[in-house]
Q: What sequence folds into this?
């Protein structure tokens, strides 16, 4: 770990002003990801700006009928918030499927969006990694890659975004609100995280110094037919090998609207509007779920250790949609 | 008393299996309060008021090659950095390999000598120690030490990739028995055969407490060393021989250990480094490893076992062949008993066993809970299950058909073996008779349900040990021995034994351990502490009784003047006449009237080898497991375990149960979770943290039911105990695999059995 200075700020302008004073400043919220990375010398900030005292720490109703989640509200407080539980149970389920109670008590919503990949090589400075050190090479391709991506990969990086919460946010069509040097703006969730391409060092589309202030959930909710399914190597406290956020609107056995997002398979929560459109209008049934699963994984590419994820993802999708639809399991 | 000892969660269900006041009772840990209130101090927690220096270890990023240049300038320029030790400035130390060979070192070979050369032999090899006024500074300065290397690209790291390098070890710690009968021929002639490969990869101990040594440099130039170790005497003798110190110059203390599991059987390199720095700087120094560095020394070796079994149509074993290859380092030959179990567990006249080693560019493997036993038994017990299925006999029945009445490896009877009772009682508790013999036939919603059984076995050894006891005139007893309590409950059980034998209340007994000034004991490992130290404690208390009785007899108007020691009992801190318990003297009275302040005894307890060697001495267990496997997703949950254990006399049913619970949990871990992932390109373990090196969490562990089967054994040691540290883990992984087969019809032979094997 390197030497750093530390300051706590109480307004966004002060936070942004701090940035100019230092070579490699970093915001710190819950610290559950950043501190680990600092201990491993992966992140080496010379200055930490504690943003936990900024006012983005409430959950409030939006005028359009949606809900605004402050970026500094903890994952635990978000998951157990009465409005979230009632109106966005998919999100509650997803958050509670992640990490451990202790971590969720510390972790913030903004930090969850910004958490970095769990790729082993990214964490180990003794090995080359394009994400950590652009141009050094990707050790995971041809190395050990059981936990890594099968969709949207590039020859430069096959990392995944490890969040559970973000998979649900993607499915729900959330909006990320930002403040930065050039004022405020909003990014649709689908455009927040990016694919690695030839710039794997960039996880998302934020610009230097941007602060995530809140996340807006649209009024459109899915409270009857939803499922967050997380498949992992142990029953808790493990990142997803594959996860599925599924939400459906069903009337008389017919799907009116479908949302389907995958976690653990790509550099960002993976959604396909095409597949969702295909589901919409169909009658509820395993066959169409299987078709959706096959379609969304078309073009998936395995790298050896992680090739099983292609089949696993398909099965998880069928299971999640089946459970979301409330279809009886055939024994 | 019922044969079946029910051991539930509450103490009320517990029945002692001995008439004693303390022995056989569910007694809570005497150090429990100290631990849960945070008063138990671990090696890194010892401090001086001021002036302790902190050492931070720099680990090699490369796996093989040479250090060609070192630049410490930038690190040394930091204010507060005292020095940086590298191979360039470490003073000349002991020359011969034997000086570095500790009590658990493999025979032969050249133990690794930190910072004594430019050669890199394994990834994360310690290559520098940065010493600074604060831990944070040392850690930071460690990032400023720059090395250049000449990297050797060609690595031998994967076991399976290097099988061609396999060779017989020069010195096997557990010599492999010679073939008996003609297994190849018998196999060919067998009606039914199984021939399969069983593989498991590297595992690391990962105790909760990181390895740490705090060396206090005394005014008299003597060192007091707080070390994380399973044997203070082992650490002490290592330090003495490497640094040329005497007993007086290096005292090693280790009152508590945050988990050992074998990782503390050998002195780890932080001890060497802390002592080195302390002696060179004449300052107190503390060195603590990081979690990542906990992956830089010993591990359970990867093994590949090729097992061939043959049986007659009626299910009698005709042939057993186990050819095993495991790994070692390039500088030491680590061997463990992997294959011998295959020749011992079942009645079979034709057996061939073989064990070879492949040297890899890794650190030397290290004993890890039931070393070799879990490895050998998991493969054998899956293979036996496979054979039973092929023959068409219930796997439990199959084991009974082939039950070994004597140890055929050694051609000796067992000192005791209640394995049949383990099978019977375990099966009854589990409900085995209701098992549907068909695989894949039990469905519950999305889950396939399966039941599996396997056998466990572990050694029941006794070693020599000394113990000292002192009874003072106020009636308090202090007993001491340099053994360890690695979380197993040594403090508690030794207190129980001393109190029981001398006839005092436990509150009046203080048991001391973990200090090199105390009487000799072996390392705490091998499940022998209860048998070894327990016997010494019993003996020394018996001796104390003799001395006390002599004093009492000599007293004026002694009620015992005309009786022998057999005619009195020691109870309630009194000597009393058996014939008339109203005639007594309290211990304090005896001492006070005799005008002595205290009475001492010091004894060495030696195993009766002459008698013991006539027998094979083992603990046994039968493990029953229920799994639920998601039929689409392949996730496995162990929903129920019954472990029936025959381990001689149980001294403390509570700590004993905890040992078995911990063992079973670890068995589930081995079956489903644990795997240190190696990158074969770099020869580096990649998941070196507890987020990615998985062990079970609470949500993975459901019902575990422990049965202690009554077993009497007068041979193993004077207490009739067999030790419980390791038996709990043995057999569990096989039982899980067998249950998965029963659930799904898929036979998994590679550990850990992760869901991708089931898709
Ligand atoms: C052992 C372990 C297991 C875990 N398991 C899971 C899991 O199963 N599922 C899961 O989803 N997550 C899991 N997590 C990850 C956890 O959810 C994240 O670490 C957490 O959400 C990060 O939030 P934080 O507030 O602690 O972020 P910090 O560590 O404080 O910050 C992380 C990054 O985000 C930046 N940042 C923080 N807030 C803002 C903001 N408002 N605007 C701009 N930048 C910001 C920081 O500069 C930093 O770069 C696990 C973590 C650990 C350590
Ligand atoms: S997958 Fe991405 S993060 Fe992992 S080693 Fe390759 S470049 Fe680095």
A:
């Amino acid at each position: 770990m390197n030497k750093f200075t530390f300051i706590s700020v109480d307004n966004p302008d002060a936070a942004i002003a701090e940035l100019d004073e230092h070579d490699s400043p970093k915001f710190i919220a819950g610290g559950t990801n950043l501190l680990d990375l600092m201990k491993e010398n992966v992140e080496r900030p010379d200055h930490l700006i504690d943003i936990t005292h900024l006012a983005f720490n409430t959950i409030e109703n939006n005028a359009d009928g949606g809900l605004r989640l402050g970026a500094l509200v903890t994952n635990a407080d978000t998951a157990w918030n009465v409005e979230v539980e009632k109106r966005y149970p998919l999100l509650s389920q997803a958050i509670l499927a992640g990490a451990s109670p202790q971590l969720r008590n510390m972790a913030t919503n903004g930090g969850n969006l910004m958490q970095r990949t769990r790729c082993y090589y990214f964490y180990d400075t003794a090995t080359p990694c394009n994400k950590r050190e652009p141009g050094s090479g990707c050790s995971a391709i041809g190395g050990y890659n059981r936990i890594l991506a099968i969709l949207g990969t590039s020859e430069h990086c096959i990392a995944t975004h490890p969040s559970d919460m973000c998979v649900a946010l993607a499915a729900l069509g959330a909006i990320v609100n930002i403040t930065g040097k050039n004022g405020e703006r909003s990014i649709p969730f689908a455009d927040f995280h990016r694919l690695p391409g030839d710039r794997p060092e960039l996880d998302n589309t934020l610009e230097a110094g941007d602060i995530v202030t809140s996340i807006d959930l649209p009024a459109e909710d899915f409270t009857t037919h939803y499922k967050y399914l997380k498949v992992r190597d142990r029953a808790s406290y493990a990142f997803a090998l594959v996860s599925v956020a599924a939400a459906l609107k069903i009337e008389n056995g017919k799907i009116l609207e479908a949302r389907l997002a995958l976690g653990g398979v790509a550099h960002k929560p993976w959604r396909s509007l095409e597949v969702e459109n295909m589901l919409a209008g169909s009658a509820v049934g395993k066959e169409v779920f299987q078709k959706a699963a096959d379609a969304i994984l078309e073009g998936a590419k395995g790298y050896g250790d992680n090739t099983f994820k292609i089949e696993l993802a398909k099965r998880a999708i069928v299971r999640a949609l089946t459970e979301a639809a409330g279809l009886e399991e055939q024994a | 008393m019922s044969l079946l000892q029910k051991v539930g969660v509450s103490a009320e269900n517990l029945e002692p299996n001995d008439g004693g006041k303390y022995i056989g009772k569910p007694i809570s840990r005497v150090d429990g309060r100290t631990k849960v209130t945070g008063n138990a101090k671990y090696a890194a927690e010892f401090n001086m008021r001021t002036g302790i220096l902190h050492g931070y270890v720099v680990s090699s990023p490369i796996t093989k090659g040479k250090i060609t240049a070192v630049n410490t300038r930038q690190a040394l320029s930091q204010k507060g950095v005292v020095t940086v030790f590298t191979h360039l400035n470490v003073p000349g130390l002991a020359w011969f390999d034997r000086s570095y060979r500790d009590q658990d070192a493999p025979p032969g070979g050249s133990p690794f000598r930190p910072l004594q050369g430019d050669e890199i032999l394994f990834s994360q090899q310690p290559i520098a120690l940065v010493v600074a006024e604060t831990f944070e500074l040392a850690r930071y300065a460690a990032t400023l030490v720059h090395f250049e290397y000449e990297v050797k690209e060609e690595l031998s790291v994967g076991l399976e990739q290097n099988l061609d390098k396999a060779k017989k070890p020069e010195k096997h710690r557990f010599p492999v028995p010679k073939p008996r009968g003609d297994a190849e021929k018998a196999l060919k002639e067998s009606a039914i055969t199984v021939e399969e490969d069983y593989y498991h990869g590297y595992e690391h101990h990962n105790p909760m407490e990181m390895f740490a040594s705090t060396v206090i440099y005394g005014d008299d130039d003597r060192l007091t060393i707080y070390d994380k170790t399973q044997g203070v005497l082992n650490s002490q003798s290592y330090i003495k021989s490497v640094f040329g110190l005497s007993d007086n110059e290096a005292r090693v203390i280790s009152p508590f250990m945050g988990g050992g599991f074998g990782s503390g059987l050998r002195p780890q390199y932080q001890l060497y480094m802390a002592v080195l720095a302390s002696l060179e700087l004449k300052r107190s120094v503390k060195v603590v490893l990081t979690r990542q560095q906990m992956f830089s020394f010993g591990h359970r070796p990867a093994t590949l076992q090729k097992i061939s079994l043959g049986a007659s149509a009626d299910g009698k074993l005709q042939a057993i062949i186990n050819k095993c290859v495991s790994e070692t380092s390039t500088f030491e030959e680590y061997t463990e008993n992997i294959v011998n179990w295959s020749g011992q567990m079942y009645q079979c006249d034709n057996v061939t066993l073989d064990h070879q080693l492949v040297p890899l560019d890794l650190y030397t493997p290290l004993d890890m809970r039931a070393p070799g036993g879990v490895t050998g038994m998991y493969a054998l017990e899956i293979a036996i299950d496979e054979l039973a299925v092929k023959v068409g006999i219930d796997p439990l029945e199959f084991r009974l058909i082939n039950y070994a009445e004597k140890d055929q490896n050694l051609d000796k009877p067992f000192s005791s073996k209640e394995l049949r009772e383990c099978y019977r009682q375990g099966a009854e508790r589990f409900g085995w008779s209701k098992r549907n013999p068909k695989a894949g036939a039990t469905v519950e919603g999305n889950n396939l349900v399966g039941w599996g059984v396997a056998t466990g076995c572990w050694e029941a050894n006794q070693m020599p040990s000394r113990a000292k006891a002192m009874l003072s005139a106020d009636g308090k007893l202090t007993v001491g021995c340099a053994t360890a309590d690695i979380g197993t409950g040594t403090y508690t059980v030794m207190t129980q034994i001393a109190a029981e034998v001398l006839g005092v209340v436990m509150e009046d007994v203080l048991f001391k351990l973990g200090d090199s000034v105390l009487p000799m004991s072996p390392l705490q490992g091998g499940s022998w502490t209860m048998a070894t130290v327990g016997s010494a404690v019993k003996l020394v208390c018996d001796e104390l009784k003799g001395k006390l009785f002599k004093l009492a007899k000599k007293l004026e108007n002694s009620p015992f003047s005309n009786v022998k020691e057999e005619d009195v009992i020691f109870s309630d801190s009194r000597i009393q006449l058996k014939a008339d318990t109203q005639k007594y003297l309290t211990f304090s009275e005896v001492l006070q009237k005799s005008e002595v302040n205290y009475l001492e005894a010091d004894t060495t307890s030696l195993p009766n080898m002459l008698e013991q060697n006539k027998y094979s001495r083992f603990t046994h267990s039968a493990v029953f497991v229920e799994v639920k496997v998601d039929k689409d997703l392949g996730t496995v949950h162990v929903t129920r375990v019954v472990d029936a254990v025959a381990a001689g006399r149980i001294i403390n049913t509570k700590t004993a149960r905890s040992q078995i619970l911990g063992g079973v949990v670890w068995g589930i871990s081995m079956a489903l979770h644990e795997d240190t992932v190696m990158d074969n390109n770099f020869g580096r373990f990649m998941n070196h943290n507890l987020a990615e090196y998985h062990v079970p969490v609470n949500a993975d562990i459901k019902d575990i039911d422990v049965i202690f089967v009554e077993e009497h054994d007068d041979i193993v040691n004077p207490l009739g105990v067999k030790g419980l540290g390791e038996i709990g883990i043995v057999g569990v992984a096989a039982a899980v695999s067998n249950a998965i087969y029963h659930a799904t019809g898929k036979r998994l032979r590679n550990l850990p059995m992760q869901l991708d094997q089931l898709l």
About this structure: Chain A touches chain B at residues 1-3, 39-41, 100, 118, 120-121, 123-127, 139, 142-144, 146-147, 231-239, 241, 308, 311-312, 315-316, 318-319, 329, 331 (CB under 8 Å). Chain A has a mean pLDDT of 96. Residues A 26-34, 36, 51, 71, 75, 98-99, 103, 106-108, 110-112, 114-115, 162-165, 211-212, 239; B 691 surround flavin-adenine dinucleotide (ligand 1) (CB under 6 Å). Residues 308-325 of chain A form the longest helix (18 residues).
